[in-house]
Amino acid sequence: MHPAVETFLAKPASDAAAGPLRALWHAAHGDWTAAHEIAQASEDRDSAWVHAYLHREEGDQWNAEYWYRRAGKPVFKGSLEDEREAMIATLLR
Question: Which domain holds residue 88?
Fold first, then answer.
């Protein structure tokens, strides 16, 4: 795991960044509902990207593909864990 991602995920929820990163923090810690509520609350592309990931995690591929299009991102073909780590690393930059 990328060191910056590991450091981010080790923080308590109260120290997690806002928006899409906070949603990914919740997703990584098993709280899909909180992650989805955060991703759904914003209209920006990064939130749409996280929203896509969450629907892929849920197994709702059609809905995930819709959100990937809204985010302007290709549908990720690897594991959920690999995608989440790549997303966090990208959003931390």
Answer: 18-92
Rounded to whole angstroms, the Cα distance separating 4 from 66 reads 29
Look at the chain and report how many structural domains it folds into.
1
| DSSP 3-state of 36 | helix
* Residue 3 counted as domain residue: no
Q: How many other C-beta atoms lie within 10 A of the C-beta of residue 5? A: 19
- What's the pTM value of the predicted model, to 2 decimals? 0.92
Q: What is the pLDDT of residues 1-14, one digit of tens each?
A: 788 888 888 987 77
In whole angstroms, give the CA distance from residue 75 to residue 66.
Answer: 10
Q: Check if the beta carbon of residue 77 is closer than 8 Å to that of residue 48.
A: no
